[in-house]
Write a structure and sequence with these properties.
single chain, alpha+beta, Ubiquitin-like (UB roll), DNA polymerase, domain 1, 2 domains, 30% helix, 16% strand, binds FE2/S2 (inorganic) cluster, anaerobic carbon-monoxide dehydrogenase activity, 2Fe-2S, Beta-grasp_dom_sf, 2Fe-2S-bd_dom_sf, metal-binding
């Protein structure tokens, strides 16, 4: 076992983990952060996307020990990164635009979308579609997801603060 210390959703965490444990398993099984989902075992779907030191990463694609010393934000802590309100503006935009059906891809889509606007606050539709290429949705056809990101971008408040 290896001891790791990191910050997750604003709280300090110190845990012993097996070196082979994936970050997504650590979040879900050790910390109970089940808002971060597993949709594949091939690093393809993006359902497991979290922020590591402010950037979107697929948490099934790295080991928990690699997050030692890092700051991790999951969908469960996203709203707290923004001023006030129960929801982050990107979560509100997804809600307003009906950008989900079953909702399985939604946590990862939102985490990636926030990072996308951090990188590019005024993306074209094509840039949004390219930016979300690593996140798969089996339900929506993506139109409303793109609209939600455009809505958050137009409001100028899609990004974490
Ligand atoms: Fe991580 Fe699918 S569960 S990319
Ligand atoms: Fe069902 Fe995206 S809303 S997978």
């Amino acid at each position: 076992m290896t001891k790791i210390e990191l910050t997750v959703d604003g709280g300090k965490v110190a845990e012993d983990v097996e070196p082979r444990m994936l970050l997504v398993q650590f979040l879900r099984e050790k910390l109970g952060k089940t808002g971060t989902l597993i949709g594949c075992d091939t690093s393809n779907c993006g359902a497991c996307t979290v922020h590591l030191n402010g950037h979107a990463v697929k948490s099934c694609n790295m080991l928990a020990v690699q997050a030692d010393g890092a700051e991790v934000t999951t969908i469960e802590g996203l709203a707290a990164t923004y001023d006030g309100g129960d929801l982050h503006p990107m979560q509100e935009a997804f809600h307003e635009c009906h950008a989900l059906q079953c909702g399985y891809c939604t946590p990862g889509m939102i985490m990636r979308s926030v990072d996308l606007l951090n990188e590019n606050p005024d993306p074209t539709e094509e840039e949004i579609r390219e930016g979300l290429e690593g996140n798969l949705c089996r339900c929506t056809g993506y139109h409303n997801i793109v609209r939600a990101v455009q809505t958050a971008a137009a409001a100028g408040k899609g990004a974490a603060q």
